[in-house]
Structure formats: C-alpha cells, structure tokens
Amino acid sequence: MSHHGHHHPPRAASAAVAIPLPPVLGANVLVLNKFYQAIRVVNVRRAFTMLCKEMAEVVHIDTDEKGHSRWQNFNFESWQEVSALKAEFEPDGFDWIHTVRFQIAVPKIIRLLVYEKLPRQDVKFNRRNIYARDSNKCQYCGRKFPTTELSLDHVKPKSQGGRSSWENIVCCCLKCNVKKGGRTPEQAHMHLITKPVKPKRSPVINIRLADERYQSWKQFLDNAYWTVELK
Ligand SMILES: [Zn+2]
C-alpha cells in the first residue's frame, strides 16, 4: 500500500477528482474485503482514495418497497454517473462531496478488489473504544462529556489489585474521578450506571448502526464474528 504525505494529495487514476476532499463530518464508509466480509470502517477521504486508485469499488444496495434489496457494484466512473441521478432524485439519501466540477455521493459501503487478510476477531482494548463503548458518558454521574473532559477509571483501583481490562475500566468525568479517589465504588458510595463488559464488536460500529443512514451495513455485520476495527 502506498503512502501519501500531507503535501502530496493522491493522484486520481481516473477522472481528476479534486482531492483533498472537503470533510464530510461524521460520514464513514464500511470496507468489505473481496469476499464481502466487513473488515473495517474508514473516513470519506480514505474511501475515495481507494476508489480513485481502483483498489475498491462501490457496493450500493437499493431496497424496494417490498424490502427486497438489490446489490450493484460500481467503479468510480460509473458511481459518478449514478451520483448524478441520485442528486436529482434522492439527494437526502446520501452525504455529498462537492468539488468544483461535480458532486458525488459518499458511498456507504465499498469493497476491496485487492487482497486483504481476514478481519481481526477482537475489539482492540484502547481508549477510543472504551469511550465509544460508554458513549462518552461518565459511568458514575451518567453525564455526557467531550473526550477531553473524561478520563479512564479503574473500577477496582490498581492499588487494590484491580486489572486493566474491559470489565474493570470505565469512562469517568474528572469530578467523579477526584471524588472516587483510590476507592472502589462501594467504598466511595458511588454506583456504576452500567456493568462494564467487553464489546462483541467495535463500539464505533454500534454507534453507526443506530443511525438509519447506515442500515445497509447491517447485513455485513450481523455475524458477530466479524468485528471491525476503525482506522
Ligand atoms: Zn461523573
């Protein structure tokens, strides 16, 4: 895979799409491997880079009134043509990239045409995934905070033998963190609003699935075996 520095935007292989693209806030694209298995989620820019370099194609799913879905695969050029129709008839169904020359719909799903190893089966134990699992909510006072105002709390403190694990680490606001100090919730007379567990799949994916724009991801994610890593 090639590397792109900040000063050298990737060159489009086909039509000259105006990359770097303007950011489409919050839009994500599900990436499938050749065998239609979900492997990760990428941002819009990364998705278009892969499309332009013909490393990936768009998998578009249309669902009719009877709930039957039809899959169609498009390369970058044909997706541009489809986009022109979508812009006219279902502009609300997509996020849009506006370039000087044209607008193009942000695909929901792309499929890699190149070889990719099978997805990892474990959700990575890291700060981002813990925050996502807890929806950025302090697990003691239940209030939502920006990431900068949250910290990670060992439910059973390290000093008392508490481990760093999915089951013993939660999001905690700074105020509650100070209040709790080096004590267990019982000792501090504080209560966890949810029991911390290891997520079955990437919490970031769960957040997206709650958004109806990402319904088409579902069929690729129903099998809990395919947990996805955000890159
Ligand atoms: Zn709190």
Core attributes:
231 residues; disordered C terminus; binds zinc ion; disordered N terminus; two-stranded antiparallel sheet; alpha+beta; six-stranded mixed β-sheet
Low-confidence stretches: 1-19, 224-231
Count, helices: 7
> Helices and strands: which structural class?
alpha+beta
What strand order characterises the main sheet?
A: 4-3-7-1-2-10
What is the overall pLDDT average?
A: 81
Strand content: 15-25%
Query: In angstroms, what separates the terminal alpha carbons?
Result: 14 Å
Helical residue percent band: 10-25%
Query: Which kinds of small molecule does this entry bind, naming each only once?
Result: zinc ion
Structural description of this entry:
Helices cover 23% and strands 20% of the residues. With 231 residues, it is α+β, with helices and mostly antiparallel strands. The strands form 3 sheets. A 6-stranded mixed beta sheet has the order 4-3-7-1-2-10, sandwiched between helices. A two-stranded antiparallel ribbon has the order 5-6. A two-stranded antiparallel sheet has the order 8-9. Bound molecules: zinc ion.
